[in-house]
Amino acid sequence: MLKTANDYETERSEMGSTGYITQTTERVPIAAKRERSIGASRSLIVGTPLLLAWYLLYRELAPLAAWVTHGLLSLNPGHLARSVEFFVFETPKVLLLLTLVVFGVGVIRSFFTPERTRQILAGKRESVGNVMAAGLGVVTPFCSCSAVPLFLGFVTSGVPLGVTFSFLISAPMVNEVALVLLFGLFGWKVAALYAGTGLMIAIVAGWTIGRLHMEGHVEGWVYSGFVANQAQSDPHIEWVERLRYGRDAVREIVGKVWPYVLVGIAVGAGIHGYVPEGFMASIMGKGAWWSVPLAVLIGIPMYSNAAGIIPVVQALLGKGAALGTVLAFMMSVIGLSLPETIILRKVLKPALIATFVGVVGFGILIVGYLFNLLL
Amino acid sequence: MMKIKVYGPGCARCKQTEEVVRRALAETGVQAEVEKVSDIQALAAAGILMTPAVAVNEVIKVAGRIPKLDEVRAWVSAR
User: Do B49 and A146 touch (CB under 8 A)?
Assistant: First the structure.
């Protein structure tokens, strides 16, 4: 039988029927304990000035960008100056925000391992389960490359199919990178709208898939054969360890997405400076009813992470594209993608994949029209 | 003999994980059998939810990230 072991000798016994309350008896060498308390004070000493520097830098970004554009590069006001100022201002702003939030989310995620999320969701009733799954999808670490093992682990340990889908929909769509970029470039209202409607789609689409009773369209071997191993439990983690988790998340996520952010903002800067105001109004504006379904259809097969697509989206919005259309485009690019459906084909039969894409796509469509109508 | 299993469906991060494991073995001089498990059924049966994952003698040591060289060194030289 497999067991998860952390670096320290840990023994645990499970208590109660809820399963995830665990009692820990730890044997930790004294030296390791001392090392940890040194680690704690050191992270405080390093962390405080870093946070202060972050704040001061963030506050001075706008004058700095103006100075670089008009002073240092002495550009005359015009297309090029507008593009350059946009780029010089947005790039450090987005990267600063990204670093801080990814760190915070990394620390939060150390509390929600996929094993724990699975334990929470196992045996939950559909409606409540859908809501919880969508919420947990935001805080549980997820990467689309693990979608299949995660799906198997959930379904075989008694998480209902529809609830599993709620998780699989919200996890990639409502993520910290998307929210930071939306907040940074559009303000908190748009970020909140996106988070709210994204969660709504995950809940309703997952619930719908559950109602359709499509368990028969999961590949046969999934339910037969084996029962997933449930012996894993969370290792007890110290706060220093959690902070390290946050730091590692920054290194990994920011280290991976910064080129996309750069390219995305560069494209955005180009559109910002050179494409005339209102250019997009005729193509992606409110008046064009067909723009929302078209945006979704184009967006579904496309695959990009939030970091690459949002700066482009911002520039489109600035030139007269309607918010609903743009949001629909973004959601379908991030939430549904060709690579993910190909991976999921290993465990799902085509009918279920088609239903999944159809239901989620339909939800995105409604959100798009709703925003165009309301705003 | 120590048995190390590297779980992963074959993504870039899984290959990096295998490299880290092999490097740690080479540096410590520990003899071990390294097996790459990419079959999804086997992955699920082992209870792995996040890839890449590494198990040493059937005990899962890490899941969902690439382990650091120092960590792997500690696992293989612990016994």
Answer: yes
User: Do the domain assignments include residue A264?
Assistant: no
Q: Which residue of B has its CA nearest to A141?
A: B64
Tell me the average pLDDT across B3-20: 84
Structure tokens at A98: 């990204």
Cα–Cα dist B29/A194, whole Å: 53
| Interface contact flag, B47 A346, Cβ < 8 Å | no
> Contacts of residue B73 in chain A, CB cutoff 8 Å?
none
H-helix segments, A110-238: 114-121, 126-139, 147-156, 161-173, 176-186, 188-211
Q: What is the pLDDT of residue A196?
A: 93
CA distance linking residue A348 with residue A78, whole number of Å: 54
Residues of B known to be catalytic: 11, 14
Average the pLDDT over A12-37 and give the result. Answer: 44
- Residue A47 in any domain: the answer is no
- Does A92 map to a domain? no
Provide the terminal-to-terminal Cα distance of chain B, rounded to the nearest Å: 11
Given CB atoms, is B3 within the 8 Å cutoff of chain A? Answer: no
Domain membership of residue A317 (yes or no) is yes
- The string of pLDDT tens digits covering residues A109-161 is 888 888 888 888 887 888 899 999 999 888 887 777 777 888 888 888 888 99
Mutate to test the interface with B, among A145, A151, A230 (most CBs of B within 10 A): A145
Min CA distance, A251 vs chain B (Å)? 12
Interface touch A229/B45, C-beta < 8 Å: yes
Find the farthest-apart pair of alpha carbons in chain B and give their distance in angstroms, rounded. Answer: 33
Alpha-carbon distance values, A254 to A21, A101, A181, A263 (Å): 33, 10, 13, 14
Total number of domains constituting chain A: 1
Q: CA distances (Å), A38 to each of A29, A49, A243, A360, in order?
A: 15, 18, 14, 49
pLDDT digits (tens, 9 = 90+) for A255-290: 888 888 888 888 878 877 777 766 666 667 766 778
Look up the domain containing A200 and give its range: 126-228+271-374
- Write down the residue that tokens 């890839």 correspond to: B51
- List, for residues A82-105, the tens digit of each pLDDT value: 888 888 888 888 888 889 988 988
Show me where the domains of chain B are located: 2-56
B2-56 fold: Glutaredoxin (3.40.30)
Q: Are strands A3-4 and A9-14 parallel, antiparallel or unpaired?
A: unpaired
> Distances in Å between the alpha carbon of B63 and those of A176, A323, A354, B67?
21, 39, 31, 9
> What's at A322, amino acid-wise?
A
